[in-house]
Structure formats: C-alpha cells, structure tokens
C-alpha cells in the first residue's frame, strides 16, 4: 500500500465551501449511522437529502461550515445541490477505507468494519503512541501504512537478534534480560506481532 495523505475533497455551493476528509473520525461516524457505510453509500446513490446530509456532517473538517451550507438550502430548490453533493460524497466514500494490496495474505480471521476501526485506534494509541487528536484526523490508510512499517521494522530486529522463540511464535520467557529489552524498546515485540496478524485480518472486513 502506497502511503498518501488523508484524501480530501471540497464541496462548493453558492458562497459556501466544505472540505470533506477521509479520516478515521469520519469512518467511525459513518459506520455508526443506520446501515453503516453501505447504507450511506446507498442513500447517496439515491440522492436522498438525509443520506447526503449524514455524509457531509460525518466527514466535514468544519462542521459549522457544513451546517451553514445545509441551512442555506432551506428556502431553495435542492435540485441544484444534490447532483454535485452526491458526486463529492461518493468521491469521499470511495477513498475512505484502504484497499488491500494485490496478493496480500491474511490469517483468515473475519472482522467487522467497526472492529477494524477500533483496532486501528487502539494500535495507533498503544503501539505508535499517537495522541487521540492526531489519530482521529489521520486516514485509516495512513494509520495502517505507518503500523505496517513499524511492525515490519520489529520483525527485522527480531530476525537480526536470532531470537528463535519470537520468530516461531512460541511462548516468550520474560527473563531479566528480556524485561530490560522491552523497557528499552518501549513496547513488547510479542504483542506487536499479534497486532500485525490482527491488522492483516481487516482485508476481510
């Protein structure tokens, strides 16, 4: 997966402009809507005002600007708005969840989209130690790419140390030397390997 900044698109209508961002916050907010992201997609495809409004409020970087745009429609026909609003919403939804790399293997575990998003937040907090403000603004693709790079680096460290127990996934004895290593690294590589396996499971989300 190529790392790219969180996808953004701008919806303009009259004197209003609202930036929609494919962030983790947006993904969680959309997943919490009735029907989740598939329901939002279906509603936007049918150009329903409720569906478009839901996507705008869930993904806008400035909710006040989104409310202002929506309020400006109260005394105007919606026909001039729904067409390009639909295009902006669908553009955002298409770029919200990262697609798996072709040929990438997974461990066969099925997880829901909500579980995948929860794991991204948890891993970004515990493993990457990002503050919540940064995690919510980052896209799922950004978080996943950084996590993969971080965990691949751990695997490379494990391979160079020749720690057979870690590489085979067998139980690790927490000897004084092992505890010192964990303290110096600031994380437990055994936990991180489990996190990598769970992260790969998202390809069946």
Shape: elongated
Derived structural class: mainly alpha
Oligomer: single chain
Cα-atom radius of gyration:
21 Å
Poorly predicted parts: 164-172
How many structural domains in the coordinates?
2
Which percent band covers the strand fraction? 5-15%
Biggest sheet statistics: 2 strands, antiparallel
Q: How many helices?
A: 11
Side by side, the strands of the main sheet go 1-2
Average pLDDT score: 79
Descriptive terms for the model:
205 residues; mainly alpha; two-stranded antiparallel ribbon; 11 helices; elongated
Verbal overview:
- The chain folds into two domains: 8-94, no CATH class; 113-204, no CATH class.
- The protein contains eleven helices and two strands.
- It has helices spanning 24-31, 36-45, 49-59, 63-71, 79-94, 113-126, 132-137, 140-161, 164-168, 176-185, 189-200, and strands at 8-13, 16-21.
- Helix 2 runs antiparallel to helix 5, helix 3 (49-59) packs across helix 5 (79-94) and helix 8 packs across helix 11.
Describe, in short, the structure shown.
The protein has 205 residues and is mainly alpha-helical. Helices cover 60% and strands 6% of the residues.
Blueprint (SSEs and pairs):
Elements: E1 8-13, E2 16-21, H1 24-31, H2 36-45, H3 49-59, H4 63-71, H5 79-94, H6 113-126, H7 132-137, H8 140-161, H9 164-168, H10 176-185, H11 189-200
Antiparallel strand pairs: 1-2
Helix pairs in contact: 1-3, 1-6, 2-3, 2-5, 3-4, 3-5, 6-8, 8-11
């Amino acid at each position: 997966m190529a790392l790219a900044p969180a996808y953004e698109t701008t919806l303009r209508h009259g004197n209003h402009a609202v930036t929609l961002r494919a962030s983790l916050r947006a993904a969680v907010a959309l997943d919490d809507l009735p029907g989740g992201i598939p329901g939002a997609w279906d509603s936007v495809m049918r150009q329903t005002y409720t569906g478009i409004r839901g996507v705008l409020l869930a993904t806008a970087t400035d909710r006040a600007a989104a409310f202002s745009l929506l309020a400006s429609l109260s005394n105007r026909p919606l026909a001039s708005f729904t067409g390009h609003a639909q295009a902006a919403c669908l553009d955002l939804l298409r770029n919200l969840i990262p697609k798996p790399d072709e040929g990438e293997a997974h461990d066969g575990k099925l997880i829901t989209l909500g579980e995948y998003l929860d794991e991204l937040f948890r891993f970004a907090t515990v493993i990457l130690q990002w503050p919540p403000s940064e995690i919510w603004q980052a896209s799922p693709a950004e978080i996943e790419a950084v996590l993969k790079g971080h965990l691949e680096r751990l695997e490379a460290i494990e391979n160079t140390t020749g720690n057979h127990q870690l590489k085979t996934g067998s139980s690790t004895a927490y000897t004084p030397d092992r505890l010192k290593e964990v303290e110096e690294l600031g994380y437990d590589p055994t936990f991180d390997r489990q996190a990598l396996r769970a992260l790969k499971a998202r390809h069946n989300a």
